[in-house]
Amino acid sequence: MARALVVVLGLVLGILTGTGLVLGNPLAWFRGLPPLPADLAPAKAYRWDNYRGIEGGVADLLGLGRRNPGIALLDPALPHVRIGIVVLPAGEGAPAALAVKVSAIAEDNSLWRAQLGTHDYWSIVWPGEGSVFANAYSNYWAVARDAFFAGIVGGDRDLMAPSYAVTAPPPLGEPAGVTGASGRYAGFTGEIRELLYLAPLNSERDQPDWAIAIKANPPPVETR
Amino acid sequence: MKRLFTIAFVVGLLAVVLAATLWPLPQHLRYRSITSVPADGGRQEEFVIHWPEDRIARPGENASSLPAAAAVGAAVLEDSAGRRVSAELFRLRDTEDNVIGVAGRLAGTGGAIADPGRSATNWLLVIPGRGALFLAQSDVQDTTVREGIAAEGSLALPPAQAAAFWTDRPRIRITAPAPAGDGAATTGKVLRGTSEFAGLRGSFIETWDLEEVNADGSTRGRILLSTITVGDN
Question: Is residue A224 part of a domain?
Fold first, then answer.
């Protein structure tokens, strides 16, 4: 009995230590994707509760998430996708906007490179003003890491930050950013950042809140 | 005992290392891309959407409880000046009828977006195993979804879903054939792509085909997005 307890204890401690090492592995410092600064432009808070597809938590990113039949997309090509309509509030001189956001789990995720994220795609239209497309890579590695360490010490949420800047450089270095499509924003190019706000403890909401910041500039003026 | 603990500890550690290395992270199912090369060059690919069955209902929406002309998976935003924006969610198919991705159609009217009586549309096509395409166009007419009020609440009323839209034509090209008006209009453009579509630009044409008018006044049909792209040098 004592031998079995020792084996179980050794295994559990080995697994916890190993998981801690993977989540805090030194390679992540050199090959990880640090979040980009989120202060490019004022962030607009939004909710993305009304979606279809994956919930988007760490379990989904690892392929362990349960599929909710009322929400999941059941087509064989869509089990790792989330899509929804988002309303971005008015403010900072801009009217409210209607948007479609799609997230697809990144196939280039790697646990050893601290990459656990989604490729996100936006189409946004401001009534009467114009429209833009945007794409970015969101890395939830820091959220997963902090949740793990908070879980080890009994679910202490103080170990987790209230918000995470999730936008990071795409793993394969492919282009990301904002492309103006129509109206006043046609031809604009720029950058996008997203923030994730965890639902407060004991809150009635189980979904996180989000914020998006977009900074776009007009095309350069051509001189004759 | 100490040796047993150490062995168990190392086994646990190695199990995590192995799991982190070999864990099968999610991959997307990818269908063979069905492309062709037009005579004058480029890369042609067509995407298909069937309405109403390819509309992606939002949670809690039930198409069977809606009036015939109303749709699920759509939203409308209108400002005090009557400038309207609508969003619709769809499954996206290839020409062999496989669901290969999802699509968002955002159309807007008024102001700097479109000439009077017309709308401009943005298509966001996301094919998870391949990347995304961003398409923008001016429409030949106003194709935004209207908002109606019923006892159940507000309804989204897409024009193509009502039989009255199709008075004497089974097919309509939605993409404006040429720029018009004050210069805000544009023909169908593939603005940019990501992943497999990175570096591609080109043109596209959106066409709606009526397939059936139902007894209740609703319709079934097909949206065809025909793209021609070339590498961005």
Answer: no
Q: How many domains does chain A have?
A: 1
- In angstroms, the separation between the Cα of residue A151 and the nearest Cα of chain B is 17
Whether A223 maps to a domain, the answer reads no
- Taking CA–CA distances from A3, the nearest residue in chain B reads B1
Does A75 sit within 8 Å of B99, measured CB to CB?
yes
- Judged by a CB distance cut-off of 8 A, whether residue A62 touches chain B is yes
Q: Cβ of A46 under 8 Å from any chain B Cβ?
A: no
For residue B128, with 0-12 CB atoms within 10 Å meaning exposed, 13-18 middle and 19 or more buried, which class applies?
buried
The gap from C-alpha B34 to its chain's centroid, in whole angstroms, comes to 18
B112 at A interface, C-beta within 8 A: yes
Alpha-carbon distance of A139 to A106, in angstroms, equals 9
- How many angstroms separate the CA of residue A95 from the nearest CA in chain B? 8
In a domain, residue A91? The reply is yes
CA dihedral A168, A174, A177, A178 (to 10 degrees): -160
Q: Which domain holds residue A58?
A: 32-217
| Residue numbers in A near B204 (CB within 8 A) | none
Q: Which residue's entry shows tokens 């935004």?
A: B144
CA distance B102 to B90: 6
Three-class DSSP labels, chain A: CHHHHHHHHHHHHHHHHHHHHHHCCHHHHHHCCCCCCCCCCCCEEECCCCEEECCCCHHHHCCCCCCCCCCCCCCCCCCCEEEEEEEECCECCECCEEEEEEEEECCCCECCCCECEEEEEEEEEECCCEEEEEEEEEECHHHHHHHHHHHHCCCCHHHCCCEEECEECCCCCCCCEEEEEEECCCCCEEEEEEEEECCCCCCCCCCCEEEEEEEEECCCCCCC
Write the pLDDT tens digit of every residue in B42-85.
Answer: 999 999 999 999 999 998 888 788 888 899 999 999 988 889 99
Establish if A82 touches chain B: CB-CB under 8 angstroms: no
Domain locations in chain B as residue ranges: 31-231
Say yes or no: A173 contacts chain B, CB-CB below 8 A: no
* pLDDT tens track for A41-86: 788 899 998 899 999 888 999 999 888 888 999 999 999 999 999 9
Enter the pTM of the model.
0.92
Please report the residues numbered 158 through 187 in chain B whose beta carbons come closer than 8 angstroms to any beta carbon of chain A. 184, 186
Most A CBs within 10 A among B18, B25, B78, B119, hence the mutation to make, goes to: B25
Query: Which residues 71-90 of B have a C-beta within 8 angstroms of A?
Result: 75, 77-79, 81, 83-87, 89
Q: What is the ipTM of this complex?
A: 0.93
